[in-house]
Amino acid sequence: MKILLIEDDQNLCNLIKLQLTKENYVVDAYTSGEDGMIYALNPDNSYALAIIDRMLPVIDGMTIIKAMRKKQISIPVIIITGMSELNDKIDGLDNGADDYLVKPFHVPELSARIRALTRRPTVISEKSTLQYHDLSLNLGRKELSCRENEVALTPKEFLLLCAFLEKPDTILTREQLMQKAWETDAPIELSNVDNYVYFLRKRLRALGSGCNITTSYGSGYLLEVCHDKKP
To answer: Does the domain at residues 129-229 carry the CATH identifier 1.10.10.10?
Structure first.
């Protein structure tokens, strides 16, 4: 499995590359945002995942991630950063990252998050799409469409929406949703589910869907047709 690593701290970059190489990953490592962006935007490199420092000189990590998503490069991306405020995390996740790891961290935790994000989704079978009301999710391209509109989802958004589309009109607990999309031995906060539900709601609004993910207080979330938008 091939991983792109962009980290300007040479010592940390070397440490991460050494550990991941021991775990049989192939790691392309760059300490410059300019060099890293060139490789990140080339789909021929066939990376399975990218690890990107947010605070890079000249070209910062968020600029690289936004450029990747704009070019429809949908591989999982883990941001590593010293910025630990909630708004920083939301900003990173809302702009295309799939996970957010605050420095300092233990490299084994990074490895666990890599395993979780690169694990093959179990929802893809003989079906090519999941459908509900005016929504259609292409399982191969990870694209959500509503009538004439469509949007590409991040890997985490895709897994969560699959859970909702497999059981629409059914309350799913945060623990159930976490198990669906965060199968990992690393500790995951329940608030991560809330963040991604927020992102999916924005996707549905942007598509003009008559569906919404509503909160069942004390229980969880469910995907349903909005009552004021039913035919």
So the answer is: yes
